[in-house]
Amino acid sequence: IDIDEFLTIVHDLSQDMEGNWLEEWLAESQSRGDRPEGAPVRAAAWDVCTSRAFENTILACVVANTVVMAAQHFGQPDWFTQASQRANFAFAMIFNAEALFKLFALREKYFGVSDAFGRFTVNRWNCFDLTIVVGTDIGLLTKLATGADSVGGIGLVMRACRIGRVLRLMQSAPGMRQLFDTLITTLPGLTNVGGLLLLIRFI
């Protein structure tokens, strides 16, 4: 991959993603015509989980959880360790409640929506959020069952899920999201460059 090709990819992505049309379309589809009018409780839950205030609250929890994880350090006192563990558990319960609340309100729309032609568009951010929640729950259940923070690869999964929550901030940052999508698009070309460098190294 060369510079011209990279700039072309970036330009095409910026044109295709201008205005975040996919996310806006998904949000509009979830908040307008698909509202469950026949079920008052679900309709109220739908209004809450599709509101900007609800999303901002969850993002604030993500930021606070990130600060708690970043504040941990070597040689920290026992009271700080216990406080951070309780805070992480509380945040995990908040994210569980968010996922269950959205699943109750949106049902199948949580995973994506179908357009006028019947083509299903997956809501990757919701699927990513649910994966993070499930991975965190597996780690918490393992810790409660064994009393250990890390059992084999479960500890790695739990730590990866905690770090993965930071990526949720990209959902509300169009610039970061475009850079991330650009990185994913250029990965095949980068693997070719990496293979070439390895080949040169061993020759």
Question: How would you characterize the overall build of this protein?
Answer:
The two termini are 22 Å apart. The protein is built from eight helices and two strands, in the order αααααββααα. The longest helix is centred in the middle third of the chain and has 29 residues. Helices cover 72% and strands 3% of the residues. The mean pLDDT is 77. A hairpin with a 5-residue loop joins strand 1 and strand 2. It has 203 residues and is mainly α. A two-stranded antiparallel ribbon has the order 1-2. Helix 1 runs antiparallel to helix 8 and helix 5 packs across helix 6.
Report the uncertain regions: none
Number of strands: 2
Multimer state? single chain
Overall outline: flat
The helix/strand series, from N terminus to C terminus, equals: HHHHHEEHHH
Please tally the helical runs, counting DSSP H or I stretches of 4 or more residues. Answer: 8
Indicate the percent of residues in helices: over 70%
Structural class by secondary-structure content? mainly alpha
Strand arrangement within the widest β-sheet reads 1-2
β-strand percent reads under 5%
Compute the CA-based radius of gyration.
21 Å
Could you give the distance between the termini?
A: 22 Å
How is the main sheet built?
2 strands, antiparallel
- The overall pLDDT average reads 77
Give a nutshell description of this structure:
The chain is an all-alpha fold and 203 residues long.
List keywords for this structure.
3% strand, 203 residues, flat, mainly alpha, two-stranded antiparallel sheet
